[in-house]
């Protein structure tokens, strides 16, 4: 495996900065990927460094057809529901183990590319963002399923309002003169229309009525040395997803709660080793530190459970 750089990660911000010196991109709800092409071939890597090429063979093949044979680009693989990107719709592709299964899935995917780290042997991460954008435009041939991620240099506040009206995710704001950072950075900010984040699955409840497999997922996040209980989510599941989650969690079941902080449920509860990470949307945090109106979006395989904190 080639030496895959650690991707830049945006910091969630509730303070909107619409001043000069920033650019704005639409926030996409998908699978973050670094695409690496060398003389040995083309591979896609998740933000944790896992090779996910077999899940998106049409994207790898489109990158193989590019004139340049040496580059590293950063982007997001997405699937759509109407005009919205949908992590839930993308999720079946993420877990596929062969290119053949991916082609038969019926889920169309697209790779929205927004940055370049290396091109033709040159490491360009120290260049200004807008200079890297100009390089990127000329580097690839923009044919499906490869798409250039458009950006705006002004009018961010107005665009954010329109994005939220459409029910989209939000915006990513980036310093126009910044080099490509490593890991979490405040040079990239994410402005969300709807609150949401990754949370560790710490257990589940029994189903009731006609519900199958499980009733709700129990969630938590890390705070220092503690694992804090954050409440439960019981909506956003199909029956297939419920059965899949129950099968995964049954293998992780344990006798006691992994949480060290929080008011824990006691009835019809099963606890699990804190290894799986769920993406959850919600309206706000309650005064008691739990989620209000949560909705399950999918499993995240690109972030270790040990790194999940409250954003």
Give the end-to-end Cα distance, rounded to a whole number of Å: 32 Å
Mean of residue pLDDT?
92
Instruction: Kindly provide the radius of gyration, computed on alpha-carbon positions and rounded to a whole number of angstroms.
Output: 20 Å
- CATH superfamily annotation of the largest domain: DNA ligase/mRNA capping enzyme
Total helices: the number is 6
The CATH architecture of the largest domain comes to 2-Layer Sandwich
Strand content: 35-45%
Which range best describes the helical content: under 10%, 10-25%, 25-40%, 40-55%, 55-70% or over 70%? 10-25%
Largest sheet: 7 strands, antiparallel
Number of domains: 2
What general outline do the C-alpha atoms trace? globular
The SS-based structural class is alpha+beta
Describe the structure.
The chain folds into two domains: 8-192, 2-Layer Sandwich (D-amino Acid Aminotransferase, Chain A, domain 1); 196-307, Nucleic acid-binding proteins (OB fold (Dihydrolipoamide Acetyltransferase, E2P), Beta Barrel), CATH 2.40.50.140. The chain is 17% helix and 37% strand. The chain has helices spanning 57-64, 87-94, 99-103, 129-139, 156-165, 239-250, and strands at 8-12, 22-26, 31-38, 41-45, 71-78, 80-81, 84-85, 110-119, 122-123, 146-148, 151-152, 170-175, 183-192, 196-205, 217-223, 226-233, 253-254, 269-272, 277-281, 284-285, 291-292, 295-300. The strands form five sheets. Strands 14, 15, 16, 17, 18, 19 and 22 form a seven-stranded antiparallel β-sheet that branches. Strands 3, 4, 5, 8, 9 and 10 form a six-stranded mixed β-sheet that branches. It has a five-stranded mixed β-sheet with strand order 1-13-12-2-11. The chain is globular and about 60 Å long. The two termini are 32 Å apart.
């Amino acid at each position: 495996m080639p030496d895959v750089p650690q991707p830049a990660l945006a910091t969630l911000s509730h303070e909107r900065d619409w001043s000069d010196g920033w650019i704005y991109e639409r926030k996409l709800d998908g699978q973050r990927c670094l695409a690496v092409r060398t003389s040995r071939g083309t591979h896609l890597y998740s933000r944790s460094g896992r090779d996910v090429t077999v899940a998106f063979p049409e994207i790898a093949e489109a990158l193989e057809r590019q004139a340049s044979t040496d580059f590293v680009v950063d982007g997001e693989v997405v699937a759509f529901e109407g005009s919205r990107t949908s992590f839930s719709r993308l999720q079946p592709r993420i877990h596929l183990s062969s290119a053949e299964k991916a082609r038969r899935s019926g889920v169309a995917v697209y790779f929205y590319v927004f940055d370049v780290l290396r091109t033709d042997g040159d490491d360009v991460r120290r260049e200004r963002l807008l200079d890297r954008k100009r390089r990127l435009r000329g580097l690839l041939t923009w044919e499906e399923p490869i798409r250039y991620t458009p950006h705006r240099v002004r009018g961010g506040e107005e665009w954010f309002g329109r994005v939220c009206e459409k029910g989209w995710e939000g915006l990513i704001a980036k310093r126009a003169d910044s080099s490509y950072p490593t890991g979490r950075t405040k040079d990239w900010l994410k402005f969300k229309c709807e609150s949401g984040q990754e949370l560790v699955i710490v257990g589940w409840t029994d189903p009731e009525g006609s519900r199958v497999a499980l009733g709700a997922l129990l969630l938590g996040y890390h705070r220092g040395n503690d694992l804090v209980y954050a409440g439960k989510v019981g909506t956003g599941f199909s029956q297939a997803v419920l059965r899949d989650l129950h099968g995964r969690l049954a293998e992780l079941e344990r006798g006691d709660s992994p949480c060290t902080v929080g008011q824990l449920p006691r009835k019809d509860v099963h606890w699990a080793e804190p290894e799986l990470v769920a993406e959850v949307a919600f309206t706000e945090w309650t005064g008691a530190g739990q989620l209000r109106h949560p909705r399950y979006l999918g499993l995240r395989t690109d972030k270790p459970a040990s790194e999940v904190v409250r954003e």
